[in-house]
Specification:
Oligomer: single chain
Number of helices: 1
Radius of gyration: 14 Å
Number of strands: 9
Structural class: mainly beta
Order of helices and strands: EEEEEEHEEE
């Protein structure tokens, strides 16, 4: 059967000045299936992923990356719902801070 797919786009920012964070590995995990899609931010800190199945996703920064820079970042949970007005979830911001 045909399954409608959606997408997500956003940006990773670093520090209090919210500078763009390039080359950051972002994990997008489907909560129900535990399938993980990887993305890496572009030079402007932006990332995007298409072809996501409907469902709830958690976006996180790869823990090894955070360990390497001694940073912390909160995850973001969102819902991809192709039945909604838009199949694209946009404007997600993941913030990295260094204590």
């Amino acid at each position: 059967p045909l399954v409608m797919a959606g997408g997500v786009s956003g940006q990773v920012v670093f520090g209090e000045g919210e500078r763009s964070a390039a080359g950051v590995p972002v994990f997008i995990e489907h909560e129900e299936t535990r399938a993980v899609v990887h993305a890496v931010t572009f030079s402007d800190g932006e990332f995007y992923v298409f072809g996501l199945r409907p469902g709830t996703y958690t976006l996180t920064i790869q823990s090894e990356y955070l360990d390497r820079i001694q940073g912390i970042a909160e995850s973001v949970t969102l819902r991809v719902d192709p039945a909604a007005a838009s199949v694209m979830v946009e404007g997600i911001v993941l913030r990295i801070s260094v204590p």
